[in-house]
């Protein structure tokens, strides 16, 4: 009788272990940009000018992008894959932002350390940036920071609306692009 009970318990335990270990592996993937937002840094502020359809910035700011991310499943290669009914959890990201491909530029010239920066010149190396990927919440985020050093070294025409562009790729060559209109007001 004890042998039967032990056999049944071991069999049930093996079945439960098999079903719990069968799953599909989940990976996050950046498929584009979901949106962007301008935010003030430190004591600066900004407003949105409804007439000019642009942000009016008076100091350091950041431009943050949320990646459009999705879950990508790959079949578990175990012998029990046919019974896979639940996700294993997010294992990793299959791609990332490729910072070596980033281009950040204004469509009009401005002055930086008394040097003219022509329109469409990549200024990515003049600003700070960071990115983050959260496996738990499937969030991918990129931030470009136009800090006080950049602002203090730059001269912009305060009567002009500039278009700031971002272009780049993910590590698997998905194109990313966005733009925002900004007027600088340092008075």
Architecture blueprint of SSEs:
Elements: H1 2-21, E1 23-40, E2 46-49, E3 54-57, E4 61-75, E5 86-93, E6 97-106, E7 110-112, E8 115-117, E9 128-134, E10 139-146, H2 148-153, E11 154-155, E12 161-170, E13 175-184
Describe the protein.
This protein is mainly β and 187 residues long. Helix content is 14%, strand content 55%. The chain has 2 helices and 13 strands; from the N terminus they run αββββββββββαβββ. The strands form 3 sheets. Strands 5-1-4-10-9 form a 5-stranded mixed β-sheet. Strands 2-3-13-12-6 form a 5-stranded mixed β-sheet, with no helix packed on it. It has a 3-stranded antiparallel β-sheet with strand order 8-7-11.
Structural features:
single chain, 187 residues, mainly beta, five-stranded mixed sheet
């Amino acid at each position: 009788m004890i042998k039967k009970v032990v056999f049944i318990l071991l069999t049930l335990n093996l079945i439960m272990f098999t079903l719990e270990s069968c799953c599909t592996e989940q990976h996050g993937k950046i498929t584009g940009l979901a949106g962007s937002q301008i935010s003030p840094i430190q004591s600066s502020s900004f407003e949105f000018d409804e007439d000019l359809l642009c942000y009016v910035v008076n100091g350091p700011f950041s431009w943050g992008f949320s990646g459009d991310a999705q879950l990508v499943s790959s079949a578990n290669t175990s012998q029990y894959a046919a019974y896979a009914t639940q996700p294993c959890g997010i294992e990793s990201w299959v791609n990332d932002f490729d910072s070596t491909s980033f281009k950040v530029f204004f469509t009009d010239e401005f002055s930086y350390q008394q040097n003219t920066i022509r329109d469409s010149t990549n200024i990515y190396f003049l600003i700070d940036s960071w990115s983050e990927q959260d496996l738990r919440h499937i969030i991918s985020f990129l931030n470009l920071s136009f800090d006080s050093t950049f602002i203090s070294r730059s001269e912009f025409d305060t009567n002009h609306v500039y278009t700031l562009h971002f272009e780049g790729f993910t590590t698997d060559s998905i194109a990313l692009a966005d733009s925002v209109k900004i007027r600088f007001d340092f008075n």
